[in-house]
What does this fold into?
Amino acid sequence: MNSKPTILDVARRAGVSVGTVSNALNDRGNVSAARRENVARAMADLGYVPNRVAQTLRGGESHVIGLCTPVTSSAYFAALLEMFEDLAARQGYEIMQVLSHGEPALELRRVQALVGRNVDGLILIPTHDSQATLDLLAERGMPTVVVDRVARDPRFDYVAIDDRRAMREATQHLIGLGHRRLLYLVRDTRLSTTQRRIEGYRDAVRAARPTVTGAVIQRDSDEAALARQVADAIAVPRAPTALIASNSALALSLVRILQQLRVSWPDDVALLAFDEPVWAPIVTPPLAVVRHPTRQIATEAWNRLLLRLRTPDLRPKRITLQAHLVPAASLGPPRSTHRAR
Amino acid sequence: MNSKPTILDVARRAGVSVGTVSNALNDRGNVSAARRENVARAMADLGYVPNRVAQTLRGGESHVIGLCTPVTSSAYFAALLEMFEDLAARQGYEIMQVLSHGEPALELRRVQALVGRNVDGLILIPTHDSQATLDLLAERGMPTVVVDRVARDPRFDYVAIDDRRAMREATQHLIGLGHRRLLYLVRDTRLSTTQRRIEGYRDAVRAARPTVTGAVIQRDSDEAALARQVADAIAVPRAPTALIASNSALALSLVRILQQLRVSWPDDVALLAFDEPVWAPIVTPPLAVVRHPTRQIATEAWNRLLLRLRTPDLRPKRITLQAHLVPAASLGPPRSTHRAR
DNA sequence: AGCCGATAATGAAACGTTTCAAAAATGCTA
DNA sequence: TAGCATTTTTGAAACGTTTCATTATCGGCT
It folds into this structure.
C-alpha cells in the first residue's frame, strides 16, 4: 500500500540500470527485445507510474497547459474548458484551470501560479485590463493564446470573434424588421468585446439615422437596479421596440424582468441575445440569439498554441471567427407596424 | 526575455547562499532582517517565481488537487469546479481537472495521469463503475473524496445527497397534490444516484398503492426516441398526470418535447425536475425543482479532503446532505381534480 | 580580551527523471 | 581468432528546490 515505485525499483527488479529503464519506457532505440520485455514486466508487477514531476524538472516540458478564465459557471466558458480538456487528453496534455473572476490583480496571481508550475503554454481569456499579466507572460516568453475580450497586444496570438460585424448585422436585421428605437443592454463596458459590440450596434444605427435611434444601458450584476432601469426605459411614450442583451446572463435577467413587467415578446418588444443560452429554444416564444462558434474557437486556439509550442518564434497572428444570428420567434416587426397591418 | 531566474540567480544577486534564499522565501527563522531585505529585493528585480515543480519533487507536496468529473458542461459540475477553484486558490492549491465522460476506462486513464502528476489529493465524481479507479487510488494511498453516484466503498470518504429521501419527498408532494399516475424519466440507471432516486420514487408510490402508480422511462441522450416514448406514454387513456425529470439535461429535453406536443403545464401535466437548471424560473410557467445543495457539497468535500491530507489515517466517513423541493407553478393538481371543481 | 551560547549562514545531499559520454557486449570480416 | 564497427548498456550529471548537519558570526559576560 501507498507504494510509489520509482524507476530505480523497476531497474533493480528487471536487473538493469536506470538508464535502460528510461530508454525502454520512452522507447528510444537501443534496447534489446529481451531487456525491453523484462522491464515491461517489472513495471507491470510493481504498478509503476512514471513521475511526471521529475520528468518535468529534468526535461523542461510539463505537458500541462494553463487555462485562465473569468468563471466556469457560464456555459460558454464551461464548454471551452470541456473542449480543451478533450483535445489535451488526446495529445498527452493536462489542463490546469484557474479563475480570475474578471479581476486583474487576481488574474495576475493565478497566472503566476501557473507559470510557477511550469505550464508549457497558456490560454488566456483576459479581464478588462490584463496588461500586467500579459507583461509577465511576454517577459517569460510563455507561449500564450489570448481568446477574446481585449485590445490587441502585438506580442500575442489572438482568437476572437468579429463582435463588431456580428452585432452590426444583428442590429441591421432588427432595423430591417422595421424597428426604429433600439435598446442594447450590456454589462461590462471595459471589456473590448463589449466595446466592439457597441461599435457594431452604433455602426448600424448610424447608417440608418435619423429614423433609427439606439440607446445603451450599462449595468453590473445588480438585477434590481437593472429591472428599474428597464422598466423606466420601457414606460416612456416612444419606448424602444427591440431589446438586445449582450450575453446569456444578462439575457436571463432581462427575460425575468420582462416577465415580471408582463411585457411579452415579440408582440410588445423584439428580443435578441448575443451568446447562446441553452434555454433559448424553450422560453416562450423562443429566443433569437447570436451564436458563438465555440467549437471553432476552441480548436483554433488549441491548434495555434500547439503550433507555437513546436515553433516558438512564430509571428503573432490574429484569428477572427464569425458569429451568426440565429433567428427565432422572439424577433418580430415592431408593435406599431404590427397594428398598421 | 524568456528568462527563468532560479533560486541560484537570486542567491548570487543578493550575495547569499541558496540555503538562505530558501529560508527567506519560506520565512523560516534564522534569517537576519538585512539579508531578508536583500533577498526580497533580488527576487523582485529578477522577477523570480519559485519553481513549484522542483519544490514538489523535493518536498513531496504538489499542492495540486485533482478533480475528475464526467463533464463540465452541466451547470452542476461547472459550479462544483468553480467552488473548488476558489477554495483552492485561497489556500495555495491548484485544481487539475480531468474528464471521464462517464466511461470507466477513460476515467482510469485520466486518473492515472493525475496520480503521475503527484496530486496531493483527489475529488472524484465516479462513473457507473469506478472499481478499477478506486482500486488504483486505494493502492496508492491517494487521499480521495468521492462525491455522489456510486455504491459505497468502505475505503473512501463520501459526500452525497440523500437522493432516496429527496425523491421520496418530492414524489409524496406530487401525490399530496392529488396525482395518481406518475411518470419518472431517467437517463443512466447504472448510476447509483439514479438507482437511489428510483428507490425513493418507488417508496412513495408503494406507500400509496394501489391508488397511485408510478412508471419509469429510461433513455440515453437520443432525444427523438425519448420524444416518441413520451408521446406514447401521454397519449393513452389514463395517462400520467405528473412528469419528473431526473436531471437538468433531461428536463430541457422534456420541456422541448412537451412544447412540441403542445402539452402545457401545470394544466395538462405537473412538471418537476431533480437538479436545478438556471432556466427553471423563466420557462412558462416556472419549473419546480429539487435543488442540490451545491455549495455545501463543495465545501464539505473540500474540508474533508484537506483534513485527510493533514491526518491521513482518518477513518472513512460518509457525509450526507439534503436536497429540497423548491415548489413553483409547474406543480398543480391533476387535470381531473381540476375539472371537478 | 577571551569565551560561551545563541543566532545566522552555508553547502551538499536528496527528490525521480533524462541524457550523454563512455564502457561493454556483440557481430562481422579477414 | 584478432580487430573493428555496431549495437547495448551503464553510470553520473543535471534539473531547482528543501533540509540539515556544519561552520561562521555576533553579543554579552567575566
Notes: Chain A touches chain B through 58 residues (CB under 8 Å).
